[in-house]
Write a structure and sequence with these properties.
Region (Disordered): 1-21, 100-188
Order of helices and strands: HHHHHHHEHEEHHEEHEEHH
Structural class: alpha/beta
Largest sheet: 7 strands, mixed
Number of helices: 13
Radius of gyration: 46 Å
Oligomer: single chain
Protein name: DUF3152 domain-containing protein
Shape: elongated
Helix content: 40-55%
Transmembrane segments: 48-70
Number of domains: 2
Biased composition (Pro residues): 141-151
Strand content: 5-15%
InterPro entries: DUF3152
Number of strands: 7
Length: 375
């Protein structure tokens, strides 16, 4: 590049960007240094090497530092031209190559510091995007989000609202750590159970599903416990279904078999409720806070009876089996029987809560049906 072309380019860029004074000052400084280099080189070759280094430093530092921030391309051209005029084509080529490498980013980046697991997790959580999300999608499990609680239905007049129970604990140890262990066969929690006359009326549906175990007429049964009762809903559901599907139960009598569902698409429903809620659910029948009922598709079991049994029965466990079979018997179409006589076995549809009228209490529709041995 000639001096004349360098001067024209400097002037053209000065009009469009950086002040011409800054550009010409860089050129003048470079020329002055170059002249000194030639003079000292003739006197002492060793000084020429040192002087050449100073020339490059002054030319590059002065020209680029002064004008690079305003007109990078013009600055590089001016400095390269000055170096070519003073030191030759090879020195100018070195200036141009250094500039092009700097502009294109050809520098060695320092190695990235490995992020700790805590730092990486925090970054993913804060941004919600990036490599962390990709890694999770390719096999790193994301922590489960607590499922939002199901909204409670607003109770209409005389009709309890319904909600789903939480899934059962995965192990007895976790269940024990959370509270009292439910009694098998009833779901009662604690050794001393207080019977409150009336609670909120909200029903908690036991979470679970199961197919009917036998052939015959299938009844899909939903099971629910009034919120606030000291009862585990799932253990209560298990005990009710064990009674309904017992070999001595309704399947032996008429072929009915019972499946468990927690959906609202059910054929029958069994509800355990406080005495006051039982009275409301059983209307227009009068259960006087003491009795249970089977009305339309719902068998309502009075918690007072479930917890304390009946004086007419020696075994509370057998009384609960009678209560389930009797009230569900109404739901599937059976009416009350009368005691056949003193000392006779009552049928399951004989009223046996307050008195058996001289009959021997009986909880099963078919008490003589064979029962497989439990190993």
């Amino acid at each position: 590049m000639s001096r004349q072309s360098s001067a024209r380019r400097a002037g053209r860029h000065a009009r469009g960007g950086a002040p011409a004074g800054l550009l010409t000052e860089g050129v003048a400084a470079s020329r002055s240094v170059a002249w000194k280099v030639r003079r000292r080189a003739a006197q002492d070759p060793r000084r020429a090497v040192v002087a050449l280094s100073l020339c490059l430093a002054a030319g590059l530092g002065g020209g680029i530092a002064v004008t690079m921030s305003m007109e990078p391309d013009a600055s590089a051209a001016v400095v390269a031209g000055a170096v070519e005029d003073s030191l030759g084509a090879e020195a100018a080529a070195a200036v141009r190559n250094a500039y092009e490498a700097t502009r294109s980013g050809e520098r060695t980046s320092p190695p990235a510091t490995a992020a700790s697991p805590d730092t990486a997790e925090a970054g993913v959580a804060a941004s919600g995007t990036g490599a962390g999300v990709g890694a999770a999608a390719e096999g790193l499990p994301e922590p489960p989000a607590p499922e939002p609680p199901e909204p409670l239905a607003v109770a209409s007049a005389g009709v309890p609202s319904v909600e789903k129970s939480a899934p059962p604990s995965p192990s007895p140890s976790l269940r024990a750590a959370a509270g009292p262990t439910p009694e098998p066969g009833s779901g009662l929690l604690g050794t001393r159970v207080a019977v409150e006359e009336e609670l909120s009326g909200r029903l908690v549906v036991a979470t679970g599903s199961r197919r009917a175990p036998a052939e015959g007429k299938v009844w899909r049964v939903q099971l629910a416990v009034e919120k606030g009762l000291p009862v585990d809903p799932e253990v209560f559901a298990e005990s009710v279904l064990a009674t309904l599907n017992d070999p001595r139960g309704w399947n032996a009598a008429d072929g009915s078999t019972f499946a468990w569902t927690d959906s609202d698409d059910y054929d029958a429903r069994v509800v355990l409720a406080s005495p006051g809620t039982t009275d409301r659910l059983c209307l227009p029948l009068d259960t006087i806070g003491e009795l249970s009922c089977g009305i339309e598709e719902t068998a309502v079991l009075n918690f007072k009876r479930w917890a304390t049994g009946s004086q007419a029965w020696e075994s509370t466990e057998r009384y609960r089996q009678y209560l389930v079979n009797h009230e569900v018997g109404h739901v599937i179409g059976y009416h009350h029987d009368l005691c056949a006589g003193e000392g006779e076995h009552a049928t399951v549809m004989v009223q046996q809560t307050t008195t058996t009228s001289g009959c021997i209490p009986e909880p099963w529709p078919v008490p003589d049906a064979p029962v497989p041995d439990k190993d």
